[in-house]
Design a protein that fits this description.
alpha/beta, Rossmann fold, 7-stranded parallel beta sheet, 10 helices, 13 strands, disordered N terminus
């Protein structure tokens, strides 16, 4: 059974919190009939074809494979305050959901405040090490490693002297995507130019949920000579994919294997590959750890070595360069190639 609330108004939050406080306090462990798993999405929620959908797949897999009795999914709204995120996490905890997964680094501050109030609840924070508590697991990724491989793929497949990178917002995590992409491009074609554009500037994160902005940015890059653009822009990637399809160019997807996303089926011919970030695996691992009483707080890193990031081969568009990409993958795993985490100045 899955209960999903697309959004919460302040009045609904207040009502739910009062109800929760009157008898739905979080238990110290899972219920006898199975876990009650709560998931707090970032902006865009289930259906963004990217980051949040990867988390949703992990939750769905947990329901199919593990002893999960009930789930609840709540979603962030554009421009909301940290207080709204705190309310969302508190609501889940007070309603007895345990464990709870916070999807995205924007939950770090709110979770830091909430975790101590519910010491019996196990929390996971995706994409940030900035919340520290004995009941918080930090699920983080080596985005730069997967981005290096798709950067190399872009350089190997490009027929021009220019490729592009579009980030949802200028944040340290998106900087890791860019750093790896630049390094992969340079490793193959040192003289190839990488155009860079962010759709918003932190703390404005609307660039992750603005397909129209993504489309305009991508159109501009294609007009400036780029024939392949890497979209590290979450839900905005749908607009970037459409721009690639309409212009007859290529795009590299992000987080999910976007070639397989139903909402992008009409434009999938433009998707060269995707930098797949296995948020689904991290979510499943976390829920399984709680179920089997092996929860460990702190950092859990997912890189190439842990199969936490990779590149997609759907469509067969990179099959001809796959041997070269696999050599690079192994070199990164072995430590022969060390991928930078900060982009060029």
């Amino acid at each position: 059974m899955r209960n999903r609330l697309k959004w919460l108004t302040p009045a609904l939050v207040a009502t739910a919190l009062v109800a929760a406080a009157c008898g739905n306090q979080a238990p110290n462990g899972p219920a006898e009939d199975g876990l009650r798993v709560g998931l707090a999405y970032d902006i865009g929620g289930r259906g963004d074809q990217s980051f949040n959908d990867a988390a949703a797949r992990g939750l769905d897999e947990a329901k199919a494979k593990l002893r999960v009795a009930k789930t609840q999914e709540l979603e962030a709204t554009a421009g909301e305050s940290d207080q709204a995120k705190e309310q969302r996490l508190r609501l889940l905890a007070q309603q007895g959901f345990n464990p709870i997964i916070a999807v995205g680094f924007a939950y770090a501050g709110p979770l830091q405040k909430i975790a101590g109030q519910f010491p019996g609840t196990r929390f996971a924070l995706i994409d940030s090490l900035d919340a520290h508590a004995p009941n918080v697991a930090n699920l983080v990724f080596a985005e730069q490693e997967g981005s290096y491989l798709v950067g190399a793929a872009a350089a190997l497949k490009s027929k021009t002297e220019t490729v592009g990178f579009i980030g949802g917002a200028n944040t340290p995590i998106i900087g890791k995507f860019l750093a790896g992409f630049e390094a992969g491009v340079t490793a193959v074609s040192p003289k190839k130019k990488v155009l860079v554009q962010y759709l918003s500037q932190a703390p404005d994160f609307s660039g992750f949920s603005s397909p129209d902005k993504g489309r305009v940015a991508a159109d501009g890059m294609y007009q400036r000579g780029a024939d392949i653009v890497f979209s590290a822009a979450g839900g905005s990637s749908t607009g970037i994919v459409q721009a690639a399809h309409q212009s007859g160019k290529r795009v590299i997807g992000v987080d999910s294997d976007q070639y397989l996303q139903p909402a992008l089926a009409s434009a999938k011919d433009a998707i060269l590959t995707s930098m797949v970030k296995r948020v689904d695996r991290a979510v499943l691992d976390f829920v399984a750890d709680v179920e089997q009483n092996r929860f460990v707080a702190g950092e859990h890193l997912y890189g190439l070595k842990q199969n936490g990031v990779t590149y997609a081969t759907s469509g067969g568009f990179v099959d001809d360069v796959k041997p070269r990409l696999e050599q690079m993958r192994q070199a990164i795993v072995d430590g022969t190639i060390v991928v930078p985490t900060t982009p060029k100045a």
